[in-house]
Design goal:
By secondary structure, the chain is an alpha/beta fold. It folds into three domains: 97 residues, Translation factors (Elongation Factor Tu (Ef-tu), domain 3); 134 residues, 3-Layer(aba) Sandwich (Rossmann fold), CATH 3.40.50.80; 80 residues, Roll (Ubiquitin-like (UB roll)), CATH 3.10.20.30. It has six helices and 19 strands. The strands form five sheets. The protein has a six-stranded parallel β-sheet with strand order 10-9-8-7-11-12, with helices on both faces. Strands 14-13-19-15-17 form a five-stranded mixed β-sheet, with no helix packed on it. A three-stranded antiparallel β-sheet has the order 1-2-5, with helices on one face. The two termini are 41 Å apart. It is an enzyme of class 1 (oxidoreductase). GO terms for molecular function: 2 iron, 2 sulfur cluster binding; flavin adenine dinucleotide binding; metal ion binding; nitric oxide dioxygenase NAD(P)H activity. Pfam families: Fer2, NAD_binding_1.
């Protein structure tokens, strides 16, 4: 780790450079890094993922931006944040996998986009915002961010500077509980939560792509609002903090099927616990997406073969992997987010 920079009272950016000084792997805007952390008091390393918060134009380093969680909440799900804030210092060596993730933006397009974030969910959105500004494209962009107040608001001046230097980029910050020292028009633009009324007031319509990232309550509200407004699922991309089970019923966005150029057998896939059997469709990228469109909703989180939330027992049959998982699943089990059937299957879900 090269340096750490406070972005607010609770959020810090960490700049990473390669130990061998060789060129870093190029990443897509919005992707994340995976860390294997050896933490005090734990017999095994923990795996944590953090979004890259800078655009690839800075090829000499990676930057991640992390919120420190209160110690009493430092369970298995958040212990990595305190490790970074309390243990990692300049010169600390970290074990990092190459960037990955299917939540990303093509900065070379010119179609209008809306970047919606809640809390520290702004990290991939800052990467996207910077990439749009760096591209030189005249791309209509709305960056809309919600947070509690200035204590938790990271990169405030940077957002304003980017918008001031690009007439096609508009930034709106909404605080839910502003402090007396938070100045409206400087730190924030309005009070409340990011909701449908705010979107209707700021946006000219729905003919644009929407990118969302934030905690489950933020996602629940905005996904439902966008659908109520008539935004098609095909124009909504999102990254969720936490497993999909934290989303309320009716807010699970399913992925689109992908075209395929090769022949693949229509294997029979049985979801034994759900009582559903269907013929595999090779247009699907993986078994998780296929299951969701059959009305079966396995748990998931990263959708990238890292977190093992979508690991389920295979009672019969075999799978192939689209890419090698960072950590292999247990024997007799499979990661549904990155696997496809190699035979007829019975999956215990």
């Amino acid at each position: 780790m090269d340096k750490k920079v406070p972005e607010s009272q609770t959020i810090t950016s960490f700049y990473l450079i390669p130990e061998d000084r060789l060129p870093l792997p190029v990443y897509m805007v919005g992707q994340f890094l995976t860390f294997r952390l050896t933490t005090p008091g734990r017999p095994k390393p923990i795996i944590r993922t953090y979004s890259l918060s800078e655009c690839p134009c800075h090829a000499e380093y990676y930057r991640i931006t992390i919120k420190k969680e209160p110690s009493h909440q430092d369970s298995d799900n958040v212990s990595g944040s305190n490790y970074f804030h309390d243990v990692v210092e300049p010169g600390t060596r970290l074990q990092v996998a190459a960037p990955r993730g299917d939540f990303f933006l093509d900065p070379q397009k010119e179609s209008p986009i809306v970047l919606l974030s809640g809390g520290v969910g702004l990290t991939p959105m800052i990467s996207m915002l910077n990439a749009v500004a760096d591209s030189g494209k005249k791309r209509p962009t709305w960056f809309i961010h919600g947070t509690r107040n200035g204590v938790h608001h990271a990169m405030c001046k940077h957002m304003r500077q980017v918008a001031a230097g690009n007439e096609d980029i508009k930034v709106h910050i909404r605080y839910s509980q502003p402090r007396p020292e938070d100045i409206e028009g400087r730190e924030y633009d309005s009070v409340g939560h990011v909701d449908l009324d705010l979107l209707k007031a700021l946006l000219p319509g729905t003919d644009m792509e929407f990118f969302l990232c934030g905690p489950p309550p933020f996602m629940n509200g905005l996904l439902k609002s966008l659908w109520e407004w008539g935004v098609p699922e095909t124009r909504i991309r999102f990254e969720l903090f936490g497993p999909a089970t934290l989303l309320q019923e009716g807010t699970s966005v399913r992925r689109r099927k992908k075209e395929t150029t090769f022949e693949e057998k229509a294997y029979e896939v049985k979801f034994s616990a759900s009582g559903i059997t269907a013929k595999w469709d090779p247009e699907y990228e993986n078994l998780l997406e296929f299951a969701e469109d059959q009305g079966v909703f396995p748990d998931f989180s990263c959708r990238s073969g890292i977190c093992h939330t979508c690991q389920y027992k295979i009672s019969r049959g075999e799978v192939d992997y689209n890419f090698e998982p960072l950590d292999p699943p247990y024997p007799g089990q499979a990661l549904l987010c990155c696997s496809r059937p190699r035979s007829n299957l019975v999956i215990d879900v």
